[in-house]
Design goal:
three-stranded mixed β-sheet; two-stranded antiparallel ribbon; 59% helix
Amino acid sequence: MLLAACESAPVTGRSQLMLVSENQEREMGLQAYRQVLAQEPASHDAEFNALVEKVGRRIAAAAETPPAEMWPAPHYHWEFRAIKKNEPNAFCLPGGKIAVYSGLLPITRNEAGLATVIGHEVAHALARHSAERLSDQTLVTAGVAAAAIALNTGNQGSTYSPLVIAALGAGASVGILLPMSRTQEAEADHIGLVLMARAGYDPHEAIGLWERMRAANKGGQQAEWLSTHPADETRIENIRRWVPEAMKYYRRP
């Protein structure tokens, strides 16, 4: 079953475990997207909305029309929304549902900076990171449950079993799920550079974006090994390393 559920991520070729179908993933993404839109205030800034839509459509077009050897065209129903909230954030939900918060504008500064953010978010959808994360969590949960059964069977009445099970769960989070999340975030940066290049945005602009993001964070990040995201310094170093590859796909509009 695990062998049959293996897929490969775009650009990087990393092996992925997929126990969730694409239809299931899209349905969950659509439900979550509707809930978020019902709770978050939409931006009525015409310029901001137009910019998010323009950049989003260019990145999505690059995702939908790849060379055959890069990745299969996803054919998502892409949506790009601008949210009025003073928070430097953006998100992607399965099926191509993407939102950008107005608090990002002082950091993105220009169209290419925004393309870095949206390229990263489109990359999450393209690589089906949500489905992979659900699959990993399912596998880890099953493993911890199996360990619990084994411990309870072999140690009838032991007072240590709940502590051991809790430790297994924490270890799975720190040792498996968090590293996987950081891997996905780095992969989205990597794929996003290729997408923005194919959409006509210079990938070098991503370095400036993440340097500004680092300055905005002002050392407020937690230790990388306890975080779902790579440290800003790690991201900048990775992006510098990946830019030459992305530049192969860059064509001035």
